[in-house]
Design brief:
alpha/beta; EC 2.4.-.-; transferase
């Protein structure tokens, strides 16, 4: 019988040779050893493919898949297709996790949750990316409702540990060819989950890369993909029967859209991304409605007023 590890850790690898070793060391040195590490070389042009093969030769728990460059979504999906563990973690190849992560997650594995919720911290800024709501095991849609009532909810897939069979049963994969794939994947996963539980474990460390280069073309695709994801999720949320959950999710999309606009990542690309009707029709909370009305009157005025308020608070 083929051994099935408790955890499959999926790491898409692309152009990170200065960061990969720290990432992999944080995985192979886990205090709980019943894991597999799947390194998906996404056609990396640097020394990463050879590094991955070296790790696999030294540790039988490390498996390497080499594929042509296809993007983060496809690399994660490839990892999922090769995973055998009961639960799946996604780790970006320039980040690290605590050495006791898997050990501390074990008690939650025993509860057979579809999704285990964790927290992360951004190295350098020390900003903690956490969840504002602590719950026992609840349905995913209920968790979304409660979390959004408390504020916002991080969508990064790396903060969640997924039961592998749950992902398979619900055909949950990452949409290829887009940036911000987590913005679609995470809410879909939660809406499908029968049992989610918050661990309270801050295990994930985001590393800010000094050599990261973002071009104007990257910025435009970044904005366009997030905008398209917001509109696609709007169609999904409008089909929900739970009116309170529907309202909170739609309101959260308006907030996300306005944040994208305020950051200057939409208005510079013209009228195609100025969607007053979307903002007016989906704002629900009084604060969001006020912002929507101001935006509908004049998007530039909204930007200046919001910027003035932020400066006053600084």
């Amino acid at each position: 019988m083929i051994h099935k590890p408790v955890f499959s850790i999926i790491v898409p690898v692309y152009n990170v040779e200065n960061y990969l070793n720290a990432c992999v060391q944080s995985l192979i040195n886990q205090t709980f050893s019943d894991i597999e590490i799947i390194l998906v070389d996404d056609g990396s042009p640097d020394n990463c493919p050879a590094m991955c093969d070296t790790y696999a030769a030294a540790d039988s728990r490390v498996h390497v898949v080499h594929q042509p460059n296809s993007g983060l979504s496809v690399a994660r999906n490839t990892g999922l297709a090769h995973a055998a563990g009961s639960y799946v973690l996604f780790v970006d190849s320039d980040d690290i996790i605590n050495l006791d992560t898997c050990q501390r997650l074990l008690p939650f594995v025993d509860k057979s949750a579809d999704i285990i919720i964790g927290d992360g911290i951004s190295v350098g800024s020390r900003k903690k990316l956490s969840h504002g709501y602590t719950a026992a095991c609840v349905r995913g849609d209920m968790y979304l409702k409660l979390a959004l009532h408390e504020g916002s909810m991080p969508m990064a897939a790396v903060l969640y540990i997924y039961r592998r069979e749950f992902l398979q049963e619900n055909r949950l994969v990452f949409k290829p060819g887009i940036l911000h794939e987590d913005e679609q994947f995470t809410p879909r996963a939660f809406l499908s989950a029968e049992r989610v539980i918050e661990s309270g474990i801050c295990f994930y460390h985001y590393i800010t890369r000094d050599d990261s280069i973002t071009t104007q073309q990257d910025l435009r695709k970044n904005a366009a993909d997030l905008y398209d994801s917001i509109l696609e999720l709007t169609d999904l949320y409008k089909q929900l029967a739970d009116q309170k959950l529907k309202n909170r999710l739609l309101d959260s999309l308006v907030t996300k859209y306005l944040s994208l606009f305020q950051a200057g990542r939409l208005q510079q690309y013209g009228k195609a991304y100025i969607h007053k009707r979307f903002v007016l029709c989906n704002a629900r909370r009084p604060k969001t409605v006020c912002k929507a009305l101001l935006f509908a009157i004049s998007p530039p005025l909204y930007w200046h007023v919001n910027n003035w308020v932020k400066q006053r608070r600084a």
